[in-house]
Amino acid sequence: MTRPPTLTEQVLAQLRAAVLSGELEPGRRYSATGLAERFGVSRTPVREALLELERSGMARIDKNRGVTVVPSSLEEIVNCYQLRLVLEAPAAARAAANADEDAVAEVEAKFQAMQEAADAEDIETLLRADRDFHSALVAVAENQRLVKVLEDLRNLVLTTGIATVPASRTCQELVEDHRDILEAVQSGDPQAAAAAMRRHVHNTAVLLIRREAAERQRSGDPAAHQFPGAQELEAKLLSFELTSFTTATGAAETEPQPG
Ligand SMILES: [Zn+2]
User: Fold this and answer.
1) CA 162 to centroid of ligand 1, rounded, Å
2) Three-state DSSP class for 26?
3) What is the pTM of this model?
4) Domain assignment of residue 84, yes or no
5) In terms of residue numbers, what domain contains 152?
6) Model confidence over 102-138: pLDDT tens digits?
7) Which parts of the chain are coiled coil (predicted)?
């Protein structure tokens, strides 16, 4: 289970970090050779890592011309959060049901790391700790495939610019937004954990949508009038949830569908 990361995995982690920190800019083209030099490795692991980056949607490879970091569109952000809502709330419930003493301690430690970063107003560390907190929870849910899927979803959203995320709320507010999730896990309450996670992910998505929508208007994007408004996007955000079907039809009973 714990084997040392391959060279390709190490390069992939470095590439992701460079995108998330803004060192590699969305929209700019980079050559595999240049990246190999930057990371001090040969081109083969760089090429393999770039393929993986493209697969996750963070980059586009143009044959023989290099790689471009793809900035996430507002629609994509909404799509990602639709999925996070659907996946992460039940995962939190599962984590609360599964968590033994060690797992609870692990989640507490991640929360503590968030708190310390917030106290130091260290935004980059705070966002990393935020991500670790979520990862620790999903790890307790015992679905390795889900760990990977959620990681991709988070990375995709973060390519819009990591440093600006907390601008809409203070560091302390960001930490507090996780407290009821922690408490639900500590008390082993799956329902409360799901509700708390759902509230947190939804809250984060709404803040991000409003900020990005305003940003696009302000930047004078000529296509801005064609974008759906923030309200429309917020409604779309919830459209994947089962409850949106049960309230529409008044009943959840449908024939099981193969799928
Ligand atoms: Zn969070």
Assistant:
1) 13
2) strand
3) 0.72
4) yes
5) 74-239
6) 999 999 999 999 999 999 988 878 888 998 999 999 9
7) none
